[in-house]
Specification:
alpha/beta; 46% helix; globular
Length: 442
């Protein structure tokens, strides 16, 4: 391997795009060399040489998307993560995850990663070959569009510090945003690559992707897709190279389809409740048709989390004057479901409602746009006392409700316990539990 490395290092015309996979494979080979091979190397010199040859990637944002991307890419590249939150940066530099994701924590603790974090823009962007943008884009109801101001600022900073880098937007943006910005800036290395990650399992989904989509000019798109492929554990990955606008549409239509499926089975469940029918039996029978299937069919209090609510609303706004009925129904159906669930609980006339868990997904610590919170607020608005059990919350109150850290006391004080997803903690008080979880899965 020593001669293999020297041959690669001394190549007369090192083309990073064409040789990236070769370099990354060699890097991995060097790092994981068998014991009897180690004596060949002067690791001090080789590690320095590898560091100089490896692609420099800056990942912006240390939420679940950014952190999962940083860990994935840091297996084979030199990655710098930047975030405005000094606490998150400090945790990452201490090899601890600032978000709840078991696999990310495992990789940070035990894997060989070329990863560091900073709050310093100059340090983050100075030598970047790639800048991967993973900043939030919240939906602004006043403008009927995503607020892309943070993404705009990141791109401006990146181009100022490293004008020859390739910029990859992984934040969700309006359809047409990337191509419009590229034309405005006169910059032809701006890509959009949607992520399809689940909260709490973001790194797993990067290592085992359902597909890789990169939109933009062909050669930079191929190069970035190769970086994602090389970091993945899965070997045969469907990879689609499109225009940036098509890639943006893939993201919003994919998430809107998932929201539609959630809404469909939730409305089926509302019908079953109203007619005294067994929802699980109906859903199972429907799903036995292989065209429908048994996945993503578990009733809930509504679709929530960071992505689906804002992405469906953005897609609806993007339709503008184009005739549609379905996309609007997906949005309104969720609000109807939240009202229906709250009414079911209120109709039982409890004095105290206990809310067990605020996150939408198992293994997540993200309460953003949680329909559990929406149901809770509607119950409170009817004058019913609410208490919360959520181990992820350090504060003593949430949304005006006391947070209890004693599970036994929580169970005893609750007349009804509201749980979006069942948990073994609640088996001994099953008669108190209100849930629509039929299958014990997300």
């Amino acid at each position: 391997m020593q001669s293999e490395f020297k041959e690669f290092k001394n190549a007369s015309a090192l083309d990073k795009t064409e040789n990236q996979i070769q370099l990354n494979k060699l890097t991995r080979k060097l790092r994981h060399a068998e014991f009897n091979e180690v004596s060949e190397f002067n690791f001090t010199n080789i590690n320095k040489d590898l560091f100089l040859l490896m692609t420099n990637i800056t990942v912006v944002g240390l939420g679940y998307v950014g952190l999962a991307n940083a860990v994935l890419l840091a297996q084979n590249n030199n990655v710098t993560a930047i975030d405005v939150d000094a606490g998150r940066v400090r945790l990452l530099n201490d090899h601890k995850s600032p978000i709840k994701d078991a696999l990310i924590s495992q990789y940070l603790a035990s894997s060989l990663l070329n990863l560091r974090a900073t709050t310093d823009k100059d340090a983050a962007y100075a030598k970047a070959d790639y800048v991967v943008v993973c900043a939030p884009t919240n939906y602004d109801p006043d403008t009927n569009a995503f607020d892309t101001s943070v993404v705009d600022g990141i791109i401006a900073d990146a181009l100022e510090k490293s004008p020859n880098c390739t910029i990859v937007i992984r934040s969700t943006v309006p359809i047409g945003y990337t191509e419009k910005l590229s034309a405005t800036l006169g910059f032809d290395k701006l890509l959009f690559s949607p992520e399809f990650l689940r909260e709490g399992q973001a790194l797993y989904d990067n290592l085992h992707p359902s597909r890789i989509v990169v939109g933009g000019p062909l050669e930079p798109s191929k190069a970035f897709a190769a970086l994602l492929q090389e970091g993945a554990t899965k070997t045969e990955i469907e990879t689609l190279l499109t225009t940036a606008t098509e890639a943006e549409a893939i993201k919003l239509f994919a998430n809107s389809y998932l929201a539609m499926r959630v809404a469909y089975f939730n409305e089926l469940d509302s019908f079953a409740i109203s007619h005294g029918l067994n929802s699980k039996n109906i859903i199972t029978g429907v799903g036995l048709d292989p065209r429908i299937g048994q996945s993503y069919n578990n009733p809930s209090f509504g679709y929530g989390g960071y992505c689906l609510p804002k992405d469906t609303r953005q897609l609806l706004a993007t339709f503008g004057d184009i005739p549609q009925n379905l996309i609007e129904a997906i949005v309104t159906s969720n609000n109807t479901r939240i009202d229906f669930i709250a009414d079911q609980i209120i109709a039982r006339s409890p004095q105290t409602v206990g809310v067990y868990g605020l996150a939408m997904k198992t293994g997540s610590d993200n309460f953003r746009k949680s329909t559990v919170v929406s149901v809770m607020e509607k119950i409170q608005a009817n004058g019913i006392s609410v208490i919360v059990y959520e181990p992820m919350i350090a504060e003593q109150s949430f949304a005006g409700a006391p947070v209890l850290d004693d599970l036994i006391a929580f169970k005893e004080a609750s007349d009804i316990i509201v749980a979006n997803r069942l948990h073994h903690d609640l088996h001994d008080v099953a008669e108190k539990v209100f849930t629509r979880d039929q299958f014990g899965k997300d």
